[in-house]
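Q: Could you predict the 3D structure of CoA transferase?
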Amino acid sequence: MNKTALGGIRILELSRFLPGGLATQMLGDLGADVIKIEQPGVGDLMRTFPPMGKQDSGTFLIGNRNKRSITLNLKSEMGKEVVGKLAARADVIVEGFRPGIADRLGMGYETLQEINPRLIYCSISGYGQSGPYRDVPGHDMNYLGITGMMQLIARPEIGPLVPGPLFADIGGGSMMAVFGILAAIVARQTTGKGQFIDVSMTDGAMHFMHSHASDYLLAGTEPAGGVQRVAGGSAAYNVYRCADDKHITLGIIEDHFWERLHKLVAHEDFPATPFPSPEETTKAKRVLNDFFATKPRDEWVKILWDLDIPAGPVNSLSEAFADPQMIAREMLLHVDHPVEGSLPQIGFPVKFSDTPGQITRPPPTLGQHTSEILTELGYPDNVIHNFREAGVT
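A: Sure. Here are the predicted structure tokens for CoA transferase:
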């Protein structure tokens, strides 16, 4: 087996939704030993989120590989004792409760860092541990609305659109948590101490607004979907329907790419620059709408790529997984699962030359490793049996 980037790092996951679960999966892909703590008889709420596999949901199965699962009643005294013992041996805890709940359960940062001063404790929440929205419930779209992103995922004639990808959950939550945890692990090598990491999915989503924030913060212009250059307002950076009713993306920013397209289009109403006046932009959109409607999508992609123009297909998800680039980059993998059989998985987003990501465990069944983990903590078989009978596990 190849060496891993995070071999020897142990992570406890107290999360019932996607952001924490995906964050720990990414760390598990890099070699961390991830122990997922779940509610007895219920488990991660993502286990029942459609579509369903033979036993667990597809949402759970695609975001929980490389983990071990232990069931614990966190409200029981013995359950809390087990968490304390796990925390004493852990490097990182990731929790996704609403602010204050972990403290009320007796497993907040202040409590567990007394047991293990080297513990890195990452809390992922919608709005963070401070501020007037701290206790407000929410999900991905609510956070995007707060940041102004929904106003950019919009068109003047219909207003904001519901986005498909979970930008705040994954980009603002999962990835920011991984970033923070890895930085804290590096810092601990110098300080010898762990620390608390407060990940707000709203704060994380706000970082997606960098290119648009400059319009407002520096130029005093309020960017809007369908108006701002890279939010649908430009002909050069837009989506066009082709003859087969499929769509093509055009992503031109630099003048030299536009010059190549200008020669290809060869229309008197087509402006000479990619970002002309609003009137000229309207003309350019009209010309390109008619132009791209004359050939099927894939034919246009070949023509534009042959001319070294930034363009591409708008793939369906089935087309995306079959795309030769995705295949070459191994972005669709499979792992054998004891219940589901051959289970498809999204591949590793970052490729390492020396410590590549690995799938060493399929997503766990609920409580699959409870006895194994309790044995590692020194509990004898009769106590493990009693835990089960008493509802602790």
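Q: Anything worth pointing out?
A: The first strand starts at residue 10 and ends at 14.
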